[in-house]
Amino acid sequence: MTEMAANAEMQAALLSRALPYMQRYENKTVVVKYGGHAMGDTELGRAFARDIALLKQSGVNPIVVHGGGPQIGSMLTRMGIESKFEGGLRVTDQKTVEIVEMVLAGSINKEIVALINAEGEWAIGLCGKDGNMVFAQKARKTIKDPDSNIERVLDLGFVGEPVEVDRTLLDLLARSEMIPVIAPVAPGRDGHTYNINADTFAGAIAGALGASRLLFLTDVPGVLDKDKKLIDELTVSQARKLIADGTISGGMIPKVETCIEAIERGVEGVVILNGKTAHSVLLELFTEHGAGTLIVP
Ligand SMILES: Nc1ncnc2c1ncn2[C@@H]1O[C@H](COP(=O)(O)OP(=O)(O)O)[C@@H](O)[C@H]1O
Ligand SMILES: CC(=O)N[C@@H](CCC(=O)OP(=O)(O)O)C(=O)O
Fold first, then answer.
1. Is the CB of 209 under 6 A from ligand 1?
2. In the chain, how many domains are there?
3. CATH number at residue 210
4. Between 20 and 30 A from 223 (CA), which of 35, 141, 235, 273?
5. Is the pTM of this model over 0.90?
6. Whether residue 6 has pLDDT greater than 90
7. With a cut of 0.90, is the ipTM above it?
């Protein structure tokens, strides 16, 4: 057999092995959170868009929720605006929320839409404001001082928590050719615009839709232990312990908290995985090699 024929045979075998997985997810909703740290590399971006296009072609209902923390950071620096994080969330004043909306619902959102469209599918870029999809309220967060153990209320400005999700638009799109790509910006009933952590936003969408899978693509292989080794499976109570003892910190806190909430709301499978590995979405959904950290009840 020539090398070309052998390769073709291998490809066919791989495709055929994917069939039971494709059948498992047919007509199921899969929410993929595409983190700002996982973006940036053109080839990886294309591979991600191709995975999403392939999911739609396979009869899955993929919904992309994206972040863009590092990209917001760069724009704020260019504008001479200082940025501060508390408990993994960006303290957001009026000027900052304007930049956040510009970067998330503007440039990044359209970049992802264009990548998916370039793969021959129809992506549509949205944020919580479109079709009254999501309403937010001012986030109420407290933080414990590690030395004194005293709880302190955080004022994060225009950081929001999603409190209402209307599925009308997303249900309509699920029955169409369109793939929704959603930026985590939403209005409040008070008339303000809120900046919502993309992980929290993805969790709210997955919960409201009763998604089968919620995947978080980030820049690390999953949740790492104290020795920086990948934890394959994490129970809700183990995850809470790792947050309390500081093993899980920064941007991993809202991610893991969202995983816990999503599981408690009935999302079947929640996984944190490396978005810097090409085709990580396909690897996770359509092969026997699950990637990353699976959070279990
Ligand atoms: N225990 C941990 N395991 C893995 N990553 C962790 C952990 N604790 C903190 N992190 C940090 O969380 C980051 C991922 O969160 P974040 O920066 O918000 O990414 P994203 O933009 O993908 O949402 C990692 O790059 C890492 O620096
Ligand atoms: C409140 C809050 O922190 N909002 C985030 C929204 C973007 C985001 O979450 O992006 P990643 O997924 O890339 O981290 C921010 O301003 O950075």
1. no
2. 1
3. 3.40.1160.10
4. 141
5. yes
6. no
7. yes
